[in-house]
Amino acid sequence: MSFLAPIAQRAAAPTDLPPVTAGGLGWRPAARADAAALLTLKNEIAAADDEPYRETIAEVEDLFTGAWRDVERDSLVGVDRAGSLRAWAFVDTAPGDVTTVRAFLNGGVHPTHRGMGVGRELFGWEVARGRQLLAASGKEIPGRIAVYAEDTDPPAKLRLYERYGFTARRFYSDLRRDLAGPVPDVALDGALRVVPWSEELDEATRLAHNDAFRDHWGSEPRDAQSWAHGRSEFAPHWSYLVVDDAPDVEALLADEHTDPHTAAALRAGGPLVVGYEMASRYDEDFGVRGYTFGYTELLGVRRAYRGRKVAVAALAAGMRAFAADGMQYAVLDVDTENPSGAHGLYASLGYEKVSGSRMYSIEL
Predict the structure, then answer these.
(1) Do 231 and 324 fall within a single domain?
(2) φ and ψ at 266, to 5 degrees?
(3) What is the pLDDT of residues 247-259, one digit of tens each?
């Protein structure tokens, strides 16, 4: 591994954040009382940029929760003379990062206030705050400042990211699968079986997720707090798990890739979730897309169980649940360079690309 300078040095964090003065707006931190106005602002921006989603009040309120967040310092809203929100920014981190410490930038400007320098100044503030958060983490590991963009976003926005030194590094495909077609029946071998998601199995599912995604670029372990956070649109009745009722405990304990938390659960005789399909329902998006759908938020399989049709079984169970509730399509998002070969799996099941997005980052 190449030598890394201290994170405080690499982050190059400014002592003071740059002022945001453009557009004749008043600037202050966001507050929970802003949730309804912020929802309106975010959805009007999404409509103007032809983005394939709209948010709910519950999703926006999630921004103001999470013990790791300091909304007073990590957010900014621009308010016009009439008291309407016209711009917003949130800078977020992820607790539990162990291989790359990350800062995520989020924000936008209402169409009425574009072309005034608001976006440029606001993004400069986000970048500076992101650098401060990385420096304050004290984690002597690689760092990343990241921002996501839809393929439909205005070219000016993407050029702004590039001017600040961001590079498009990852590309994602939004896929859909017509549920009018037959859903495959999958026979699992050994003691594997598909079960509905339940609270009792959620911790075992978190451990399965951390194992499944440890070889995925950009993924970091999820602690219990961040795993349970942001589930305002979670659809438990559309979510399914694959469990092994008779795991080879000795072999798993001997496997150098078995993480300590899973090993402890195995020794305690806890359940072993080996695959999962976690789904959400985004009713606000149905009108935007022009069809109803169930969304697979997360799909994963433990490394030791790949090649045993676990992912297909979990995904098929989710698709049947979507169809049973009258949904027209199954939808999910995938990294185009997914190391598990997921793209090929989805194509074989009839998923087709309908839109895309990308992640821009500065690597430190």
Answers:
(1) yes
(2) -65, -45
(3) 999 999 998 889 8
